[in-house]
Amino acid sequence: MTRLTDGEALPPDRWSHRTVEGMFQWIEGKLAEHPEVLRVRFDPELGYPKDGYCDITSMMADEEMGFELKSVLPP
What we know:
By secondary structure, this protein is of the alpha+beta class. The protein has one helix at about 20-30, and strands at about 35-40, 50-55, 65-70. The protein has a three-stranded antiparallel beta sheet, covered by helices on one side.
């Protein structure tokens, strides 16, 4: 797993794994926090979230989070 902001490889103890359903739950949870920015792109054929970015508040440092899903197989 690689951090997108700087390309640094993260050790396994810093990995976060989610299912596609789990990603939808994560998005819903972030929406409930009323973020300043929540941007998600969805796969046009299968509808899963392909990638996204969330910034709860621009006044706080280092709470931003992004994700990218790759190699998702159809159900």
